[in-house]
Protein: EF-hand domain-containing protein
Amino acid sequence: MASSSISHSLEKEFSQSELRDLSELFDACDLTSKQYIDLNTLRAMFCLLGYQASHKPTLAIVKDLDLNHKKLSFEDFLQCLVVKQGDTYDPYSELKHVFDRLSEGKEDIDQDTLVRKCRELGVSLSLQQVREMMDIADRNGDGLVNLQEFITIMMQTNLFQFLR
Structure:
């Protein structure tokens, strides 16, 4: 579990529920279980949270905060996220962007594509977890997740609500 000892100033930025969810995301992306991530993993996590995260701007955030881009702790991740939240944010265009990346430009996301994309992003999920995610998001029962279903489910999650 990502470190629970974070600064008081960061505790004020997030609710306990958000911190728990962000900690779970951090742990899922920390493939080495050493409680640290690198810059590429940070970028992937920003993308999972609906942000565009190219290399140079993400590196600039890390450098501005005087952090080590090769060894970012959970608290470092939260500091970077606070800075990233200050960016202009359009949730629908961001969600469409994320959907397009996950669906590989197709109209729907299928289970195999979601499994592959999770692996590419370094997110460790079991096949059962992916099935459950698909079942929850698939409102029309066709076994696929379309853009509207994706937006609906993302707008309902704790991880997305605090970014609005």
Observations:
- The beta strands are 108-109, 145-146.
- The chain has two domains: 8-85, 91-161.
- The chain has a mean pLDDT of 85.
